[in-house]
């Protein structure tokens, strides 16, 4: 086996290989491969927070149910607090005390036909753009069961077409941004119901008509709904559901909604504040970057690992819509002036963070696409040739990059991601508006957990090769710290 390190190329003899393998018996290695293939995307349901055995299983199940019930309520009352209570958490507590649980229940909007129409028209338009716009065919990574899904790479075209259609709709008076703002609670409520219906559909489809062999039950109804049954369900051959929910509804909805909020500020106050301009410009740049790199997204954990269920599909449809957009939602009703120097500083720093995050993702994607031939930061890349076995017993090879951004820490790209989120939120400054900062806070927890989950996943997929990568790049996220 050849291991290329930043210090050069190491050729390991069979004896050395055997020695490196000692920490892993053959039986354990086979079990790890089977676990990787069979349980991909189903999370750990046997333990949580260090609990194991029966207590761990009960805690994992209780945590799952609490998440499924709690997240919709959190998303809805986040919207309510930002739009009706000036974003104040103490205001929310005061409201709960005054109105009682009955009043809290009554504040949950029932979707009107207009709200449903917004959701359905947007969903249908995005599905049509996904199917009809031209794009190169892109082969996704090999799945645990040895399949290689094919996608149409037309995300950038869909992004510009959607923004153009939205702006034209506003110009010709077909779309009213202020009406979208006013309907937002109902739209969130409709999306929630729609997503629950989608999860039920995905469960039935996964059970009776899966699109591929990358599907299966966890043995538990709750986990089959929460984690999903299929890795990449499709309607027909071409409508990839995860691309539709995560990219074309979730991420695209983010881009459209923040534009609507900025225009609503203009409609009501006669101008758009510099805080709104900075926040929306950074978020639009981030979403554009996402679509520019969409083929890379098809090689990330969301797609390769997490199945289509409540966690992913409900999350992308509702959580992105309600939580990720929150700075602009707040600013739509509360214009804040930053002043030129501060606004410019936030804008430039945010752009730099988004660029670094993009460059790290791009570096890994180009490295893999060119089979490690492309120079990284002007030098030959340091790499590890890692073999693994798919669930059907086929031996495959992947390259792991251990230089450039990927040599600083194993998940360095999460740091600029978090920095960018802070920089587009910080235009909403002030302690009494701390609820808006929930997104960067949540993102930090999400990405730290993801770094942990990805290490576990890659460890069971690549075994000793991953250990070698960890030896060469010892830091998980923060270089020289952790
Ligand atoms: P990553 O881009 O970190 O991809 C993880 C996969 O990459 C691993 O499972 C492994 O897959 C492969 N890999 C890991 N290390 C290496 C290496 N050294 N060289 C080559 N390949 C490697 O996935 P994420 O989905 O976590 O992140 C993708 C982007 O999405 C990031 O920019 C992140 O910040 C962003 N993100 C944003 C979120 C948000 O809510 N705003 C949430 C999550 C992510 P393989 O099996 O192919 O080897």
From TrEMBL:
<feature type="transmembrane region" description="Helical">
    <location>
        <begin position="268"/>
        <end position="288"/>
    </location>
</feature>
<feature type="transmembrane region" description="Helical">
    <location>
        <begin position="113"/>
        <end position="133"/>
    </location>
</feature>
<keyword id="KW-0752">Steroid biosynthesis</keyword>
<keyword id="KW-0560">Oxidoreductase</keyword>
<keyword id="KW-0812">Transmembrane</keyword>
<feature type="transmembrane region" description="Helical">
    <location>
        <begin position="154"/>
        <end position="175"/>
    </location>
</feature>
<keyword id="KW-0472">Membrane</keyword>
<feature type="transmembrane region" description="Helical">
    <location>
        <begin position="243"/>
        <end position="262"/>
    </location>
</feature>
<dbReference type="InterPro" id="IPR001171">
    <property type="entry name" value="ERG24_DHCR-like"/>
</dbReference>
<keyword id="KW-0152">Cholesterol biosynthesis</keyword>
<keyword id="KW-0153">Cholesterol metabolism</keyword>
<protein>
    <recommendedName>
        <fullName>7-dehydrocholesterol reductase</fullName>
        <ecNumber>1.3.1.21</ecNumber>
    </recommendedName>
</protein>
<dbReference type="GO" id="GO:0047598">
    <property type="term" value="F:7-dehydrocholesterol reductase activity"/>
</dbReference>
<dbReference type="Pfam" id="PF01222">
    <property type="entry name" value="ERG4_ERG24"/>
</dbReference>
<feature type="transmembrane region" description="Helical">
    <location>
        <begin position="58"/>
        <end position="80"/>
    </location>
</feature>
<dbReference type="GO" id="GO:0016132">
    <property type="term" value="P:brassinosteroid biosynthetic process"/>
</dbReference>
<keyword id="KW-0753">Steroid metabolism</keyword>
<comment type="similarity">
    <text>Belongs to the ERG4/ERG24 family.</text>
</comment>
<keyword id="KW-0443">Lipid metabolism</keyword>
<dbReference type="InterPro" id="IPR018083">
    <property type="entry name" value="Sterol_reductase_CS"/>
</dbReference>
<keyword id="KW-1133">Transmembrane helix</keyword>
<feature type="transmembrane region" description="Helical">
    <location>
        <begin position="338"/>
        <end position="358"/>
    </location>
</feature>
<keyword id="KW-0444">Lipid biosynthesis</keyword>
<dbReference type="GO" id="GO:0005789">
    <property type="term" value="C:endoplasmic reticulum membrane"/>
</dbReference>
<feature type="transmembrane region" description="Helical">
    <location>
        <begin position="309"/>
        <end position="332"/>
    </location>
</feature>
<dbReference type="GO" id="GO:0006695">
    <property type="term" value="P:cholesterol biosynthetic process"/>
</dbReference>
<keyword id="KW-0256">Endoplasmic reticulum</keyword>
<keyword id="KW-1207">Sterol metabolism</keyword>
<keyword id="KW-0521">NADP</keyword>
<keyword id="KW-0756">Sterol biosynthesis</keyword>
